[in-house]
Amino acid sequence: MFKKIIVAAGFFGLVIAAKAQTVSEALKMLNYERYGSAAQMLEKITVREPANAEAWYWLAQVYLQQPDRDLEKSRSVIESGSSKNRNNLLLEVARAQIGLLGNDASGADQQLRQLYSANSQDLRIVKAIIRARLSAATRSSYSGLTGEALRSASSKFESLVINEKEKYKSQLTKAYAYLAGHYTNSGTNKEKAIGYIKKYLELDPGNAQMKAALEKLGGQ
């Protein structure tokens, strides 16, 4: 009987570990830009574990990060997740992120500031807030976010993930590319443009486009 209990407990532990790992596996799919696979995995988790706010959050991120960004679908995901996870901070950040990408940039920006002010010691929430700002700043047409504001967010983001640069390489390079483009096109600060191109090349030294941009600015 005692052996049966041990075996059952061990099996139960493996099941829990498998469920926890599924979110991790879905994030791997997202990092590989396999959006369909990531969405399927996360949808299964939300059905099986409706109280798993992290799964709802990342499912919304899949729809926000895919090339054909789907704001309506991501909004629907967050509404469904919020109905099962009342007042969850991670989902509140995602809701503001959708507003930032939609037609309520000003209101969403204020909400993100309030969330940051109240939760500045919560690394998970701070990362989500910065991810929200970067997603808005790196879209093809943005509003409500200045180059200086993005610089500040990028700086905080970089300090948070100093030991996880490979994991967040995609977001960092997007931020650096945007900042370099902002300072180059606006003509406000050539040295900053050069500096951000060099930061980009530290992460992706073989990028021919950024090398050409650096040479054009006389940074080599």
Task: Pick out its properties.
single chain, 220 residues, mainly alpha, Serine Threonine Protein Phosphatase 5, Tetratricopeptide repeat, 3 domains
Question: What does this molecule look like?
Answer:
The protein has 220 residues and is mainly alpha-helical. It folds into three domains: 8-86, Tetratricopeptide repeat domain (Serine Threonine Protein Phosphatase 5, Tetratricopeptide repeat), CATH 1.25.40; 91-145; 163-220, no CATH class. 76% of the residues lie in helices and 0% in strands. The protein is built from eleven helices and no strands. It has helices spanning 2-31, 35-48, 53-65, 71-84, 89-101, 105-118, 123-137, 147-160, 169-186, 190-203, 208-216. Helix 1 (2-31) packs antiparallel against helix 2 (35-48), helix 5 (89-101) runs antiparallel to helix 6 (105-118) and helix 10 runs antiparallel to helix 11 (208-216). The protein is globular. The relative contact order is 0.06. Residues 1-20 and 140-146 have low confidence and may be disordered.
What series of H and E elements makes up the topology? HHHHHHHHHHH
Mean pLDDT, all residues: 78
Secondary structure category = mainly alpha
Tell me the major beta sheet: none
* Helical content class: over 70%
* Amount of beta strand: under 5%
Note the overall shape. Answer: globular
Oligomer: single chain
Instruction: Specify the CATH homologous superfamily of the largest domain.
Output: Tetratricopeptide repeat domain
The number of distinct helices, counting runs of at least 4 residues, comes to: 11
Reported by name, the CATH topology of the largest domain is: Serine Threonine Protein Phosphatase 5, Tetratricopeptide repeat
User: Spans with pLDDT under 50 lasting ≥5 residues?
Assistant: 1-20, 140-146
